[in-house]
Amino acid sequence: MRFGTPNTSSFKGSSIPYMDNKIIEQAKEFVSRVFQEKLSKKLVYHNYKHTFETANEALKLGQLHELPADELQDVVLAAWFHDLGYINTYQGHEEESVRLATDWLEEQQYPQERILRIAQCILATKHGQEPKALLEEILVDADLSNIGRPTFFATAELLRVEWEIFLDKFFTDQEWAQFQMDFLLTTSFYTQAAQGKFASQLGLNIQEQRNFLNQEVKKQKKKEKKYRETLAQPKRGIETMFRNTYRTHLNLSAIADNKANMMISLNAIIMSVIITYISAKSSVIGTEFAQHRIIIIPIGSLLLTTLGSIIFAIISAQPEVTSFAMNKNKMKNRDVNLLFFGNFTNLALEDFQQGMHEIMRDKKSLYNNMITDIYYLGEVLDRKYKILRISYTIFMFGLVLTVIAFSIAMAYY
Fold this sequence. Notes:
Layout lengths: L20 H18 L9 H17 L4 H13 L11 H15 L4 H13 L9 H10 L8 H15 L6 H14 L5 H41 L3 H49 L1 H6 L4 H22 L10 H5 L8 H4 L4 H13 L1 H50 L1
Helix pairs in contact: 1-3, 2-3, 2-6, 3-5, 3-6, 4-5, 5-6, 8-9, 10-12, 10-16, 12-16, 15-16
């Protein structure tokens, strides 16, 4: 959207008898200066341009309704101040705008009853507030005149950006199109002048928005269909991924079992040798052996090391079955993995057959079961390798302590 230089001629000259153009010019200059100094640059919709357009439109609608000069002046002043509160707050800016407008108008010694009328006009622009007087209706129509202009769609995108920044409201393209469609259909102008001026373009905007919404709905349906097809059709890449993942997990499980078996065998041999040695020495040369009891320390250290290491190696190699209580609801909600024997062996044959037939009919359910199976395989592997690591750690530190103890024993011997 191109922004031209605002035309201020609408607020100057003698085309509006008895209206104090001087105070309007002062208000305009005040609002312009405050916006320039204090308004956030992130406010891409509620800025000086929007305020100028609202004030200009309020003047035109007031002229079409042939308002008295004092009322026309008040509604234009209200238009200039209606968004000034954005310099301090985003939500509830109307009340802040009233406060700022009241302070400025009192400095100008403006009549109190007319300040109150201007405040009521500003508050009427609040979302969900119904205007109660003609001046309020004129200002509300001027504030919403954007919906009856060809630039509606461009400026609406600016409002979308503002909401994302200041309100953390994020919309998909379809959600935003639906929101705008609902807004256009539920928003109407209050004054006859605005209805006659903007009705035609508003109708065109509604039709264009409806077409855009239909396009977004078709795009979304196309994406959903493509997603469903991706899940429903067997893809070589998906099958290869599952095959390789299963193969990797099984290989890692076999490696863990082999390492556990190696530790079991090695420590069993060491334990047998130690026990045999101690038995032979204590029975054959018991008196001499008793005289050198310090040698028992490294031997005992080695024996405890092998015992601890072999215990954890056995726990690691111990078969692990992940299972949990089964019920009909879990099967219906696809919360079980029917491909794993630890689960389906808890089912009756008829239930298992029914569940497998449902899996074969639904590829998404099949993939979900395979994913669940891989997850639990990973849990078993994680446990195996943690326990196996403890076994190796005990063996390593035990050997170091045994060597140190043996060296000390030999030094004393």
